[in-house]
Amino acid sequence: MSGDNAINLETGDFLAVHGLSKTFRGKAGDVVAVDGVDFSARKGEVVVIVGPSGSGKTTLLYLVGSLENPDAGEIEVLGEDICASGADLIAYRRERVGFVFQFFNLVTALTALENVTLPMDLSAVPPEEQRRRAVDLLERMGIDRRLQRTRANKMSGGEKQRVAIARALANDPDIILADEPTGNLDTATGMTVVDILVKLAREDGKCVLIVTHDESILEVADQAFHMVDGKLNGR
Ligand SMILES: Nc1ncnc2c1ncn2[C@@H]1O[C@H](COP(=O)(O)OP(=O)(O)OP(=O)(O)O)[C@@H](O)[C@H]1O
Ligand SMILES: [Mg+2]
Question: For residue 77, which of 15, 9, 17, 20 has the smallest C-alpha distance?
């Protein structure tokens, strides 16, 4: 994968998903979690997918982030199919996508600063620069010097989620994938987190994909979909 984040000039699409499907097979029967999903998004766009529990939102996000393999379909990032054999999925996961989760998924025994430098460990960036970059990202998220040195288990939910967003940005990804990012936050704190995600699209040109139960997030969407039984419906 190249680090170039120019737009696919033919379509203007940055991310395009075609016929994406995933079935989980089990003794109790098969579950079609994602069923022939198509959508595309441009650089700088916020895409919001709302659906009930079990509708396939997390599975779709994991497919796009290459944490799960699809049974069928294509995921094109700048015209390059990341599901094709030979695609560098390790580089894709590390450098092109950043994840934000409902339960934050920080390493609770590490400080905010350490959580943000962690994803840079495998990169060629020298340690001093990693630190500087992490401090910059945390300051942008409103995490001050004291909190930067505080362990994650001592932070409020809103603080943890802002640290988690800084961590997602550590390797300057093109795509931010957020799974129920406000699910464990009060309404006001949740709105702050949504505002941050929207700014990352509008000001930094990130492509932001949010999946959620929370219908109120639809307000900020450039593109909004409902997901039901693994299928996407535009609205
Ligand atoms: N690893 C797995 N193995 C088997 N079945 C799975 C697995 N992951 C998800 N499923 C099933 O796939 C369907 C979609 O699950 P998914 O987690 O994507 O839904 P969701 O929309 O994110 O739900 P929620 O809002 O509760 O988070 C569900 O029926 C779920 O039980
Ligand atoms: Mg889910």
Answer: 15
Residue 229 lies in a domain: yes
This prediction has a pTM of: 0.93
CATH number at residue 91: 3.40.50.300
Minimal-distance CA residue to ligand 1 atom 25: 53
Strand segments, DSSP code E, in 117-213 are 175-179, 207-212
The closest of 25, 26, 52, 22 to 35, measured between CA atoms, is: 22
Counting ligand 1 atoms within 8 A of each CB, the residue from 23, 48, 49, 55 with the most, and so the one to mutate, is 55
Return the H-helix or E-strand segment holding 115: helix 112-117
The DSSP bridge pattern shows strands 46-50 and 223-228 to be parallel
In a domain, 151, yes or no: yes
Pocket of ligand 1, beta carbon within 6 A: 24, 26, 31, 33, 51, 53-59, 213
Domain tally for the chain?
1
Condensed to tens digits (0 to 9), the pLDDT of residues 25-52 reads 999 999 999 999 999 999 999 999 999 9
The torsion of the CA quartet 230, 175, 91, 14, rounded to 10 degrees, works out to 90
Taken in order 79, 80, 83, 85, the sign of the CA dihedral is positive
Q: pLDDT band at residue 6, thresholds of 50, 70 and 90?
A: low
